[in-house]
From TrEMBL:
Domain EamA: start-end pairs: 10-142, 160-302
Protein name: EamA domain-containing protein
SUPFAM superfamilies cross-referenced by the UniProt entry: Multidrug resistance efflux transporter EmrE
Source domain of life: Bacteria
Gene Ontology cellular-component terms listed: plasma membrane
Keywords: Cell membrane, Membrane, Transmembrane, Transmembrane helix
Length: 318
């Protein structure tokens, strides 16, 4: 694995994405005292769509097969935005941000397997080792507390956890489809179309949930000005959608999807401390040990091969 300039850029983009998305669940969970999951998603895409409209106009005349591009992106984003986020944030309303994070940590492993099966990607030795280390951290966090209920208190929300697990599977399908079909499209253009898809779809769902368009508009006027809701919607609408999604799509285009997915293991390093310190959720020793393994796995996956090459060059020079 050559550590090229392009790979360095991809790593920076994916690291920034992990940091932004790592703060997402606690920020959003905090807003649920004032609103619902679907209304939050509608508010989120109001912010995202405001940014998306000029982006779409800027890139639209530069894209060939305009109608075809909109159809392809819209269909993929119905999976990646509407179905995917509906499962995640509805599940989050029924469970803790820490529990949700622990389940989504299986996502990078599923994505790597999907990349190998469907995209015929190959793994470097350091990536495999890093994956094993990070996956062991995931298993430590997720499974050991089940067998240690005498030591730590474990709470489960089966319905919420199943929804988050469904999100993890759908998210893998989405990133594989994006990797396969978004080549050739400007990444801001693809992201911009996805924001419009999110705005329209969650407007419809939120209106059905609350009982009509007038009721939704009334709730929007009352809720979006409340600080927890405004901050969560703005954070996810601008940083979580416009910045992070674009960075992720661009970053995974520059390297293998399996390698890009390893950065997903970094998100809990942000999410879990926020959940504990901000939302007063529980943290136990197994989670601390698991986070350490996860961070170590990401480091091994990204630098171990590079150091080996340096040693080889040193031997040749000597």
């Amino acid at each position: 694995m050559r550590f090229t300039k392009e790979r360095k850029v991809a790593y920076v983009l994916l690291l920034m994405t992990a940091l932004i998305w790592g703060g997402a669940l606690p920020v959003v969970k905090n807003s649920y005292e004032e609103t619902t999951a679907f209304r939050f998603l509608f508010y989120r895409y109001i912010f995202a769509a405001i940014v998306a409209v000029p982006i779409i106009f800027y890139y639209f005349h530069r894209v060939k097969a305009k109608t075809k591009s909109v159809i392809i992106i819209s269909l993929i984003e119905l999976i990646g935005v509407t179905l995917n986020l509906a499962l995640l944030y509805t599940g989050l309303s029924k469970t803790t941000s820490i529990e949700a994070t622990l389940i989504t940590m299986a996502g990078p492993f599923i994505t790597i397997v999907g990349g190998i099966i469907f995209l015929k990607e190959k793994e470097e030795r350091n990536e495999i080792l890093g994956l094993i280390i990070a996956l062991s951290g995931t298993l430590l966090i997720t499974l050991l507390p089940l067998f240690a209920d005498q030591i730590v208190e474990v709470e489960f929300s089966l319905e919420g956890n199943l929804m988050v697990l469904g999100h993890t599977l759908i998210n893998t399908i989405y990133f594989i489809l994006a990797k396969k079909y978004y080549n050739g499209y400007p990444k801001f253009y693809a992201s911009g179309v996805s924001f419009i898809v999110g705005l329209i779809s969650f407007f419809i769902i939120a209106a059905l949930e609350i009982g009509g368009v007038n009721e939704l508009l009334s709730a929007t006027t009352n809720e979006i000005v409340k600080p927890p809701v405004f901050f969560a919607a703005a954070y996810m609408g601008v940083l979580g959608s416009v910045v992070a999604l674009t960075f992720y799509i661009k970053g995974q285009e520059m390297i293998e999807i399996s390698e890009a997915s390893i950065f997903g293991y970094l998100q809990p390093v942000i999410t879990i401390p926020l959940g504990v310190l901000w939302l007063n959720e529980n943290l136990n020793i197994f989670q601390i040990m698991g986070i350490t393994l996860i961070a170590g796995g990401v480091i091994v996956a990204s630098v171990r091969e590079r150091r080996r090459r340096r040693k080889r060059r040193h031997r040749v020079i000597s």
